[in-house]
Fold this protein.
Amino acid sequence: MAVMGLFEVDVRVAPVPPNGPAGWETVRLLVDTGATFSTIPEAVLQKIGVTVLGTVPVELADKSTVTKDYGWAVIEVEGRHVPGIVLFGRSGDFALLGATTLEQACIAVDPAKRRLFPTAAIQA
């Protein structure tokens, strides 16, 4: 299975609304510009109190489709807080920082230098 991951970064994740410093958990995610949503390990999301809101079909890199639970969380990436949908990663799943989170945070990817950086402005 091909993954369009470029490199890993540490982010913090919390439930919505964040319930203070104790509600935040640091997690290492693979930057994956081919993934729509971020996938956070289920154990982390359960630990911080993110509630499953439903299920959604997800097409994987190998073109197979699976059903994943999703919830609402805040991801802090590069000092920017992004509330949104996160997928509950199961055992064996990659923990991913997806395109939606990056775009909402106005963060771009520099694959040559393997880094994230803020974009100049929001495109409307």
